[in-house]
Every structure is written in C-alpha cells, then in structure tokens.
C-alpha cells in the first residue's frame, strides 16, 4: 500500500507484494511512476492529477446524471413506467443487462438524453483559439478563451421550442439530430468537435445499465421533503439532495 499526499488529497494506491500493480489503468500509471526511463515516467503529481480527473470526469458526472434521472422519473411516473416496461421486455426481471440489450433501449435512451438536456452535468464549456478565428462574422485573435454556456443553449426556446422547460423525452424519438427545431445543433452535454468527451459512450452505457437494474427491482417517488433547487458544485446537482422513496418490486 502506498500513499500520495498533495496537500488536499491523500490517495492510497494498492501495490501487490511482488511489486506488480496489475494491468488496469491505475496499475499502468503506477508502473510508469516507477519506470527507470525518466522520459517514460509519470511523476507522483501526474498520477494524482490523473486520478482526480478520472474521478471527476468518469464518476461524478455519471452519478449526477443518474441522480437527476431518478429525480425526474420520480416527478414523471408515467415515463418511469414506460422505461420499466421497455427494460422488462428486453431483460425480464432477473437477467443482468447485456450490451446487445442495452443498445435496444430506445425509451431509456430518450429519457437519458432529455435529462442531459435539462440538467447537463457540465453547465459550460471552454475553448481556446489556437489562431485567428472567425465565428458568426466576428474575428477573434489567437489565445482567446471562448465560453459556451451549455445549460443556456439547452434551455433556449429558439432551439427547442416554447415547451423547452418541460420534460419531454419524445423530443429524441428520432435521434439527437432531429431533436431541436429545424435540426439546429443545440445538444452539447459532452461537448462537441474533435475534443468531445472521450467517455461519452461509456458514460451512457454505464447509465443505461444502472438505470435498467434499478427499474428491474424498484419503483420510486420523490419524498415530500424534496426541494427542487439545481445548483452547480463542479457539476449540476440538487442543492438539498435527492430524497427518494424506493419500493421493492
């Protein structure tokens, strides 16, 4: 067992007795940390920063998506029933969700996309110009940081219609490209372009699997103590928590 302390995080990383760290991503980083070739070695600080990134980008965002999905489906039991019916039709009550089955969950995908529209984990996205760039008739010099307010675009009536604040998964019945008015680009929960989130497909697969297993086993509703107050703490979260009452099926 080895500990790293960068002042704000104390990370304990498991190392086997023979010195090997395994072949998973964490193990490979630890092997690099001990590499004799300085050109191939990750510093201790590099490893810590990578761990922070994978926790935030790979865990926190998916957790936020699932939290909001449970909240929204608690608010809209008719869509909870539709999603459960689809899941049970594909997997039954006992089967562990499979990759092939998850790819057939159209209604569940629609629900997750609409939750991502209303409550994107990352509410804004930054890009820096590498050279003089023209956008919308305006010329920007190099090294200018541009900020795109994802949450404002996701709530724009010009893009989504007058019912933009309503939970309507059917917007995505024909896919993302046809969800907005006139097919205008307006859905950016994972960013866009060559630097789109590398974990997009994995995140959605995780969320579908977790939601499917919950739907197989439980039905739920919001507790009377729940207060709807989205706020941003790195990711978009319920400010007062998500109090949910579960009932086993």
CATH superfamily of the domain at 65-124 and 152-248: Cytochrome P450
Radius of gyration: 21 Å
Can you tell me the CATH topology of the domain at 65-124 and 152-248?
A: Cytochrome p450
- Euclidean distance between termini CA atoms: 42 Å
Short description:
With 249 residues, the chain is α+β, with helices and mostly antiparallel strands.
Task: Tell me the layout of helices and strands.
Layout: E1 2-5, E2 10-13, H1 25-33, H2 44-75, H3 77-91, H4 99-102, H5 106-118, E3 125-128, E4 133-135, E5 138-140, E6 145-148, H6 150-154, H7 157-160, H8 200-217, E7 218-222, E8 230-233, E9 235-238, E10 244-248
Antiparallel strand pairs: 1-2, 3-6, 4-5, 7-10, 8-9
Helix pairs in contact: 2-5, 2-8, 3-5
Folded structure, characterized:
40% of the residues lie in helices and 16% in strands. It is α+β, with helices and mostly antiparallel strands and 249 residues long. Helix 2 crosses helix 5 and helix 2 (44-75) crosses helix 8 (200-217). The longest helix has 32 residues, at 44-75. The two termini are 42 Å apart.
């Amino acid at each position: 067992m080895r500990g790293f302390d960068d002042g704000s995080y104390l990370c304990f990383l498991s190392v086997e007795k023979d010195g090997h760290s395994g072949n998973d991503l964490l193990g490979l980083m630890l092997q690099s940390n001990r590499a004799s070739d300085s050109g191939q070695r990750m510093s201790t600080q590099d490893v810590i920063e990578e761990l922070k990134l994978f926790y935030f980008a790979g865990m926190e965002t998916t957790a936020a998506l699932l939290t909001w999905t449970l909240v929204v489906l608690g608010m809209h039991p008719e869509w909870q029933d539709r999603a459960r019916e689809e899941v049970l039709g594909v997997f039954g009550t006992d089967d562990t969700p499979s990759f092939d089955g998850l790819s057939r969950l159209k209604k569940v995908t629609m629900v997750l996309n609409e939750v991502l529209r209303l409550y994107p984990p990352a509410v804004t996205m930054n890009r820096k110009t590498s050279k003089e760039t023209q956008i919308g008739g305006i010329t920007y010099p190099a090294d200018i940081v541009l900020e795109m307010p994802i949450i404002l675009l996701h709530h724009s009536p010009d893009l989504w219609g007058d019912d933009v604040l309503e939970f309507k998964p059917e917007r995505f019945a024909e896919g993302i490209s046809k969800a907005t008015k006139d097919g205008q680009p307006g859905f950016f929960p994972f960013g866009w372009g060559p630097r789109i989130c590398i974990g997009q497909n994995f995140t959605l697969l995780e969320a579908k699997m977790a939601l499917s297993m919950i739907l197989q086993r439980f039905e739920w509703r919001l507790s009377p103590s729940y207060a709807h107050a989205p706020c941003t703490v790195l990711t978009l979260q319920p400010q007062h928590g998500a109090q949910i009452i579960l009932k086993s099926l």
